[in-house]
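Dissemination and training. As part of the outreach component of the grant, students in the summer workshop were shown how a complex can be specified as a set of sequence lines and then modelled as a single object. The example used during the hands-on session is reproduced here so that future cohorts can follow it. Participants entered these lines:
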Amino acid sequence: MPTITAHNLRKVYSVQKKRPGLSGSLKDLFAPINEEKVAVQDVSFSIDEGELVGFIGPNGAGKTTTLKMLSGLLYPTSGEVRVLGFDPWKREYDFLKQISLVMGQKNQLWWDLPAIESFNLAKDIYDIPQPVYKKTLYDLVELLDIGDVLNVQVRKLSLGQRMKAELVAALIHTPKILYLDEPTIGLDVVMQQSMRQFLKDYNQRGDGSIILTSHYMDDVKELCKHVVIIDNGTILFDGLLSNIIAKFSKHKIIEVIGGKGELKTHKVLRGQVAEKAATLLKDPSVVDINIKEIEIEDVIRSIFSAPTGPDI
Amino acid sequence: MHKYLSIFGITLQEIFTYRLNMVMWRVRQIFVFLIPFFIWRAVLGQGGDIYGYSFATIMTYLFGTTVLRSLVMGSRTIDLGWMINSGSLTIPLMRPLNIFSFFFIRDLADKLFNLTFMFIEIPLILLIFKPPVFIQTNPLIVLYATVSILLAIIIYFFINVIFGSLAFWTRDIWAPRFLLMVIMEIATGAMFPLDMLPLFWQKLIFATPFPYLLFIPLKIYLGTDPQFLSHILIALGWVFFLGVITKLVWRKGIKSYEAEGR
Amino acid sequence: MKLTHLKAYARVWLKLTAQQFESQVANARGAAALFILGKVFRLGSALLLVYVVVGKAKLIAGYSLNEAIFLLMLFNLAQTISQLFLRGVYIFRQKVVDGTFDFYLLNPLSELFYSLFSYTDPLDMIVTTPYIFLVGWAWVNAGYAITLPLILLLVVILIISTIMVTAWHIIIISIGIKYLEVDNTVMLYRDLERMGAFPVAIYGRAGENILTYIFPFALMSTIPAQLIFGMFNPWYLLIFATLALVQLQIALFIWHRSLLSYSSASS
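and obtained this result:
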């Protein structure tokens, strides 16, 4: 029995088109033009219990919109979605008790109070029995190592500590489904790593599902077995990460920067990267060299642009 | 000059963008007229007078303050406090224009917007409520009234800048603003003529600049102010006094604003 | 399960209010003083208006000066109490724009609870006590006896009017969700509310009916005053109670409709 199923989900917004200039403003005032913006066209998928799924795609692809429909924030224009047997839009108490949403940098902790106060309040809101609460709190605090900042006002915490406290708040009621919207955005490399590690560990310990959206390929590579690629509101790929990696990670990109700042790009098979780099560096006019993974945007572009199958 | 015209145009655009906001604002202005109207009608509708005002003359007064309010009290400089707190004051500060002119032009745009709507609302008010309207025919008096109104506009501008500048030193600007609004409701004479008040209160209120915003200009226009010349001079005095304070407060405030490096 | 929910609502509300108080004491002592001053001034100027106008005219819509003052005090108290709990409206727009509203939606407790009740100002609660005394004073001053049954009926009226006021605030934030416009709407509501400070009969038949049956403003002052003056049959309160519940239902319906087109802070 899949935990989450979505059938032909669609979300359309009506957006007013603004015309420039003063006369445009006046026209907008009396004769507004409304445009239909399709955020999610037609999306269907299913997710099983305990999975760690990544929705990836470029900005504006519709992944956040889809996530918000899965959590009950947005009402689908058409289509059906079922999470844990509930219709998320109804936002029933028993449904909300079992899910959690973490949104990038947005805080749900109280700014002026110590984090522990927000946790204690969550206990009341989610009806968590005292012994369960104590144990869960202890486990999470240990796992995230924030025991010494529990009594510090949230506003005084560093970004990393705050994010950890947010995670505790999100997980204190042991939700069956954890939604994360762009969890690593704005974090430095070290924090991104620890976030990923935490999510991986957490997923392995329990039987909850984790659904995240990201436009960083690294998030997905580290965490997800099951990957859904979305672009322009439609699903381009829904399956195992290992399949994509097998298909697309054959190459890496080597960028070579010359003395006058000019840039040359080379696409090189993985196994030959070191060799090719060494060769390129022998050229005295080369000032700098960058070795990169292929951008997620290129991966996606290749998925739907190549008729015989992607070939990067 | 051209840049000020652009600021004028852009401010109008800003106002138009929020249609519902605009409509609500205008509806509210009608209410400021309505409530006193009903009160006075209940009290004076059958005849008689209070402190020398009959229903007809009080209607004229009310109508007058309603029109004047668009002209004098239309202002965007109220945003100043928020702009300072959020740091967005930096943007116009960095532009090659006089910051006071910037705010003043925006005020003028707001006044124009309000006046334009008044042209729609005045016929409606006249039609439904039929207040006796007094058209001043003496050109000299019209001149004095215009001067008085101009001074009122400047005084209100300075008051707004001073109150907005409080934000340089404190995050909480709503509380003093609230107090100011409550005081001005009475002290400007918007709801009822100030000469209805007991003498003690009149003296108190006339020690402030507020009566010079609505009450005095209107009385001068109606030709019922025997001391109009001295009142105009006092208003001028307020302009200078408030102008000096504005400059001082601003200068101090800007120093602390820049020191915070926002 | 419902009982523990109530406990949760109560504790959350207490915490939120305590936090407000804490931050006011810590950050804005001066501001709090100014606010109180402002409120006192506002009541004072309304009183001044009543004295100036009604004092000279001796009568307004058939009510004497002291009766009009009593009406004003009732209005003041009802207005303070209803605003006391519903201050969340004033920061609602900000909460939608910065994304906090999304968290309200996903919190197991009702998002209406957070949107409306989460900004209670303890200052308002402190100010309510002297206002109650003012009502008592004005009651006696108007020449009527204070009896227990009358007090109980006043409390009933207060409850009914608070339900209506809540319904209207729900409608206001429904508009806010759709058009991101709350502040002017609320101020418009307050402008209308101010009409209740005077006997609603002065607004003509149409005005009176609107303020009595559509809006709760007559219920806040004119009707309880009439009750005390012996001009109002308490059984009519049953009609108003029904009306209040109907208005609440309608408001909730409108609220759910508005959420359908909610587009969330960032997508």
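Chain C has a mean pLDDT of 88. Students were then asked to discuss how this feature might be tested experimentally.
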